[in-house]
Amino acid sequence: MPIVPSANPAVDTADVAALLDRGKTLSTPVLRTVVDRLAAPMDTVAAYHFGWIDEQGRPADGDGGKAVRPALALLSAEAAGAAPEAGIPGAVAVELVHNFSLLHDDLMDGDEQRRHRDTVWKVYGPAQAILVGDALFALANEVLLELGTVEAGRATRRLTTASRKLIDGQAQDISYEHRERVTVEQCLEMEGNKTGALLACACSIGAVLGGADDRTADTLEAYGYHLGLAFQAVDDLLGIWGDPQSTGKQTWSDLRQRKKSLPVVAALAAGGRASERLGELLAADAKSSDFDSFSEEEFATRAALIEEAGGREWTSQEARRQHTIAVEALHGVDMPERVREQLTALADFVVVRKR
User: Which UniProt keywords apply (predicted)?
Assistant: First the structure.
């Protein structure tokens, strides 16, 4: 069962899979060539992170992620009337920034698993995770600027703005872990920065490289921003109730990290007995010296209180609401109907995914 039932259950998973595969097929060769520019051992560490090799350096066919962002970058080029190939540099640049953030986030959050494998900092150490993340960020700008066109300069400005917002969001996320209360509005602002900004960039960068004007790019960016909020809402649900076999993370992963994610914040704001009890437990958790040794049952209790207080259902509804806003934004762009349908299908996929 999907973690968020779709308002439009007729999601054609085969079509979506084809779009995601196209994004990988067109962008991965360029991505690998760009990553090969890194000095040793950063090239090896990055190759491990992307799933191209295992810990022993042997070729691997690892899970490199869903590749939603590259797929969106190629589609945005088509939305502007260009060939999908026009969006490849943008797809690669956005994927590099996304993975820069993953490398750093895993270290900051203490996550030991990503995509069913040990994370980079766990295998190669924190220093390599930081250095390789920094290097990927630098490469992202290099990939765009070396095109040497006016459109490349416009695309780079959008990417750097999105990157700064992404970093703002991560800083907010970390600070919220140490606060007893965070409002729903603050949580949505944080998630709009941390996830929405880069997805918004992915949805406009291909169009910019394809020659679109700012109005078209801004409208596609609005689609991507709200899609990002829907995406993060689903991530927040998976972070508590997701199947570890699908997500590649521990059970109750966000609760273990004391994250103030949407289900938690919505539950605390709901009022009522379950909300009050949850607030008491989380306040005690923040002061606990043995939090890391909590049992599965203790985390399950907190998850049950979040659900009883309505946090799970509110977040599911918010994912659907943001999905609707995203799809409606597409009506503001004159694009081939086939491309509109594909962007809608990707939005549908975001709210019914299991990982």
Answer: Magnesium, Metal-binding, Transferase
Q: pLDDT value at position 4?
A: 63
Name which of 137, 118, 261, 99 is nearest 187 in CA terms: 261
Record the tokens describing residue 110, joined without a space: 């203490």
Average pLDDT value for the chain:
92
- 286: confidence class by pLDDT, cuts 50, 70, 90: confident
Least trusted range by pLDDT, from 59-63, 92-96, 100-104, 345-349 = 59-63
What separation in angstroms does the CA of 182 have from each of 22, 196, 228, 299?
A: 40, 19, 20, 20
Q: Tokens 């949580």 appear where? A: 187
Residue type, 173: D
Residues whose CB is less than 8 angstroms from the CB of residue 73 and which lie 6 or more positions away in sequence, other chains included: 23, 27, 87, 88, 90, 91, 94, 202, 203, 205, 206
Round to whole Å and give the CA distance between 320 and 348.
9
Q: Is residue 304 part of a domain?
A: yes
The answer to whether residue 175 sits within a structural domain is yes
C-alpha 201/C-alpha 230 separation (Å) is: 15
CATH for 194: 1.10.600.10
Identity of the residue numbered 265: V
- Report pTM: 0.92
The alpha carbon of residue 345 and the mean position of all alpha carbons in its chain are separated, in whole angstroms, by: 18
pLDDT value at residue 9 = 43
Burial of 273 (0-12, 13-18, 19+ CB in 10 A): exposed
Q: Give the closest residue to 48 by CA, choosing from 36, 57, 37.
A: 57
Q: What DSSP designation does 117 have?
A: E
Look up residue 62 and give its DSSP letter. -
| Residue 59: φ, ψ to 5° | -55, 140
1 by DSSP, 3-state: which?
coil
> How far out from the chain centre does Cα 62 lie?
19
Q: Are 75 and 342 in contact (CB under 8 A)?
A: yes
Q: Is residue 8 part of a domain?
A: no
Number of structural domains (the chain) is 1
Does some domain include residue 5? no
